[in-house]
Amino acid sequence: MRAKVKGTEQRPRFCVFKSLRCIYAQLIDDSRGRTLVAADTRELKKGGAYNNTLKEAKELGELVAKRCLEKNIQQAVFDRGGYKFHGKIKAVAEGARAAGLKI
Asked: What's the pLDDT at 47?
């Protein structure tokens, strides 16, 4: 998958990873090997229980897009990490799109 998807400084790679407990998202500039923006669902709960729902996935996408726009990043390449594009992975992408990030 990553042989086809590469991130640049103008259009970084939007990488998503999900575990049983949390969903993690980050934007990576592969040309320099740096993480530009990162967030996960633990930041949304602030000490509460982890539900790992579609609602939290969408909120995570919105949070990442908000941080990207603060750093003047307008576009990204979506890297679904080998997961099928449905459910929580799709919700993260839709949340980011709704907040203004072009994927």
From this structure: 62
Reference 43, options 29, 64, 18, 65; nearest CA is: 64
pLDDT tier at 23, thresholds 50, 70, 90:
very high
The Cα 20–Cα 35 span in angstroms is 23
| pLDDT band with cut points at 50, 70 and 90 for residue 71 | very high
> What's the pTM?
0.89
**Four-residue CA torsion sign, 28, 57, 41, 46:** positive
Q: CATH for 13-98, among 3.30.420.100, 3.60.21.10, 3.30.930.10, 2.30.30.30?
A: 3.30.420.100
Strand partners, 17: 24
